[in-house]
Design brief:
CATH architecture of the domain at 4-145: Sandwich
Distance between the termini: 21 Å
Number of strands: 10
CATH topology of the domain at 4-145: Jelly Rolls
Number of helices: 9
CATH class of the domain at 4-145: Mainly Beta
Radius of gyration: 18 Å
Largest sheet: 6 strands, antiparallel
Helix content: 25-40%
Strand content: 15-25%
Amino acid sequence: MIPRYQEFAPRADLAAHVRCMWLFEGGEETEDQRIAPDGCAELIVHFGRPYLERAPDGSAIRQTPVVFAGQLTRPLHLRADGPAGVIGVRFHPAGSYGYLGQAADRYTDRRTPLESGLDLAGLDEAARLTAVQDHVAARLAANPAPRDSAVEAAVERLRAGQPVEASRDLQRRFARIVGVPPRMLAAILRFRSVFDALNEPGVTSWTDAAQAAGYFDHPQLARDFRRFVGCTPTQFLNQQAGLASSLAQV
């Protein structure tokens, strides 16, 4: 089965918290998918067979049908052992706090099962997207957490590649709302920008992409690949087409 990935703009009532909705469909995989951090937490709703997640001891644990995936700071390896189908909600870096109603850093590097009542079986694509967005809207309404303009401004500066001088209080609030400290988000965003740079005119190698993303050299990029994905850039590029490569290309 040829993998299919597509993004959708969120409804207007979700746009302050949600960057996009996305859909992925694919078949059984013969190797793990290496999911790279992107600076966003996500809600994952399986309408196909839930993914197997590689545990630290090497064993495979099946995800539950509905999972809140917190910020990533280390490698996440998944594998589909049957037909995969996922509706994802990608929150803005500071957007999941309102959905959770509690500190986002409690969920960092964790995939937490949720009792959501969501059942997408038998629904068509439009109905699935509607059901998931209705769920998110209901959670946001039930958890009217005030937004922190200083944290959101710091996030935007980091996304623009600008430094952030944060007091200890702002660092604590930032980690609670975003899920990671400012320095970690900056590192993740720089790493993520490498994939964007690969699509720029004149960029013909990983070294070119690394320099365009602000790395000193290719070895520094290779260290971040090992840190965030657990492999070399070439190994990541050569992995089986699937969820990981789809997410890296957006």
